[in-house]
Amino acid sequence: MSMTMGTHPAHATAPKRPPGRGGRPLLEVNDLKKHFPIKAGFFGGTTGHVYAVDGVSFHIDKGETLSLVGESGCGKSTVGKALLRLFPPTAGQVVLDGQRIDDLSQAKLRPMRRRVGVVFQDPFSSLNPRMRVKDLLAEPIRNFGLAKNSADLDERVARLMDTVRLPRDAVNRWPHEFSGGQRQRICIARALAGEPDLIVCDEAVSALDVSVKAQIVNLLQDLQKELGLALLFISHDLAIVEHMTHRVAVMYLGKIVEIAPRRELFGAPKHPYTEALLSAVPVPEPGSARQRIVLTGDVPSPINPPSGCRFHTRCPYAFDRCKVDEPKLQQTAPGQWAACHLHDLPAERNPLARGVSMPV
Amino acid sequence: MALLEVENLQTHFRTPDGGVNRAVDGLTFSVEAGETVAIVGESGCGKSVTSMSILRLIPEPPGQLAGSIRFEGRDLLKLSEREMRDIRGNEISMIFQEPMTSLNPVLSIGQQIGEALRLHQGLSKSQAEAKAVEMLTLVGIPAPAKRVKEYPHQLSGGMRQRVMIAIALACNPKLLIADEPTTALDVTIQAQILDLMRDLKHRVGAAIVLITHDLGVVAEVAERVIVMYAGRKVEEARVEELFRAPKHPYTQGLLGAVPKLGSSLDGTTERLAEIPGLVPSLKQKIQGCVFASRCPHATELCREVPPALEEKAPRHVAACHYAVKEAVAA
């Protein structure tokens, strides 16, 4: 019934896991694609595609946080939704704990859904305003048939409230009685109801205020330690990502351009886009003299992505080869993969050749 | 005399159930000509209501404004609607957060930039269009002569925000209010817009009131910072001073709650500081310090007596009973 890892077609672009690590990853995504057709005209014919996600591969280990970062329209949320099967992927594989879930029927998928929770950005629109908190939390428990009887159900709901640090007696209240941060806690509790192994956090803290954001970030980190959860943390906020992630994948126009452990990515980015992204983040230190790389222009359209390297239209280092030849992800340091032709040049001509330097 | 002097501004809203929401409750601050002042705080602290109050964009009723807002010595709250219209977009203009919804989708970019020019400066249609092209060049839009005929949906988010800035600066205002101007934009586009604002400030010389929740943006752009909480000013200082030595526990909490880029390199990825609890409801009159319910140092005194804004260091005021003691101890 399950596909094992050995049967996956090998992909040149797929980053291989660093050697010496045992066990299979919790989640493996291989060459995932999601193209949305553009319907136009009287007969609704397809006139083109939005190449939202165009060949993305990564893995997440048990208890690990992988962050997907990038700007709006880079496809990071589409990756999250495709692997949750909120819509069917166009191509590629999603393997959860050894079992392919991208081609399962809805009926067979249902028991697998229990193992992946999701928290969305807006806690105001992701809770049904006409359901009390206890019903919101009981719904997934009932759906997955986890409770033995009604007493067990109540007990599980109460435990979920404890887990997300909300008072047990708040279960009879309605969503509108809670603040944004508290609602996000309810959303997290719902995501935890099926006792998942992985939670997809799609901009889960982006809509929250600074002080509340810190509370939710701390809660997620505590839960990860307590429950051994893996997190796919989709975000555009690089400072938060750096604070809580183990590894980071940077996306640009539907592709991963760099994937690396946190320290390597933030200390010595190996892709010009990562470098520019990091330098663009405003730092809360007045007068800090930083070399900022301001990218010119806007992100090109994913309907008609540029030839060669998709970043070449904005890249400060682009040379002739970038316009025609699409770079593949290549390993530049242990665990660090970047898709950039600069790494084929001799080190003295590669502006990204330096390693992680310790600040003094 | 400062360019803008806001004194004891109170913007209250009557709620349907007969209560009063004290969105802004006794705010005093001033802006010098050519200066950039940031107002920071979380949702509901009254920072946007303050900016709307300055331009008198608050509907009355249910809104109710009291206090005084003096712009070049004239009290804006006493002007007629007609006189106010001469000031809006001409002497004081505003950039809003959402460039998608602040532009009219059925008017070309040129018409929208030209509208203010024709209204306030009496330019003819062709003069206004020529000036619109000039403004688009100023804000760094490529091919301005072509873009001026285009419509908002043909532009990207960053381009639209540049157009908003062009409209705001078209009449050479003395004061520009920017309400979360980069919040809806991506980081790389945000960097472009912040650079543009800094550059234009030197060239145009307008004073800027920047409303934001992003402490990173504050650090990059502002000269002076006002921290608001629950409708009141709790701290004000020069930007370097505020980040170096915040005096109010709320400001300290805010700065502690923001992770810094580069934290994984020097091994400082500790737990983020939380500010426990919630912002108090503005419907009840708060006795004592507005932050007392969440403050780790709060005492009986804080819960009963509201702290006055005091100068705790040169040009650094904070509303806290204990700020000085802490500063001395540290």
From TrEMBL, chain B:
Alphabetical GO biological process terms: peptide transport; transmembrane transport
Recorded superkingdom: Bacteria
Database matches in PROSITE patterns: ABC_TRANSPORTER_1, ABC_TRANSPORTER_2
Which residue range or ranges hold the ABC transporter domain?
Answer: 4-255
Which controlled-vocabulary keywords does the entry list? ATP-binding, Cell membrane, Membrane, Nucleotide-binding, Transport
Q: Which GO terms describe its cellular component?
A: plasma membrane
| Record's keyword annotation contains Cell membrane | yes
Q: How does it sit in the membrane?
A: Peripheral membrane protein
Known CDD domains for this protein?
A: ABC_NikE_OppD_transporters (cd03257)
Q: Which family does it belong to?
A: Belongs to the ABC transporter superfamily.
Q: What is this protein called?
A: Peptide ABC transporter ATP-binding protein
